[in-house]
Design brief:
The protein has 2 helices and 8 strands; from the N terminus they run E-E-E-H-E-E-E-E-H-E. By secondary structure, the protein is an alpha+beta fold. It has a single domain, classed as 2-Layer Sandwich (Alpha-Beta Plaits), CATH 3.30.70. The strands form 3 sheets. A 4-stranded antiparallel β-sheet has the order 4-7-1-8. Pfam families: DUF190.
């Protein structure tokens, strides 16, 4: 797959405890994106954050450490991102999705291995 030039970066901001059916939402999103043939996705777990309710979630407070912030990032063509947005919206009960234009300089698999 060749993915270079102007593309779209989608970030999905959710909580670690968010679910889709019986599965963690971030896992369900990544699996769905993989099945749909996206170039790749990365899940980033935050150590501190707050959302629309202004409740701070941090790994320092045991009481709030069960719902740390999670970001799912994916870069692909604007058309693929736009087409998948309704499905992502259906899977989310809260959170935020952002889109940015990005310029992909390099996207190639390593000939010796591929993650």
């Amino acid at each position: 797959m060749k993915l270079e030039g102007e593309q779209t970066l989608m970030r999905v901001f959710i909580g670690e405890s968010d679910r889709w059916k019986s599965q963690p939402l971030h896992e369900a999103l990544v699996e769905m994106l993989r099945r749909e043939g996206f170039a790749g996705a990365t899940v980033i777990k935050g150590i501190m954050g707050f959302g629309c309710h202004s409740v701070t979630h941090t790994d320092k407070l045991l009481r709030f450490s069960a719902d740390l912030p999670v970001i799912v990032e994916v870069v692909d063509t604007p058309e693929k991102i736009k087409a998948i947005m309704p499905r992502i919206d259906d899977m989310m009960s809260g959170g935020m999705v952002t889109l940015e234009n990005v310029h992909v300089i390099r996207y190639r698999k390593n000939e010796n291995s591929c993650s």
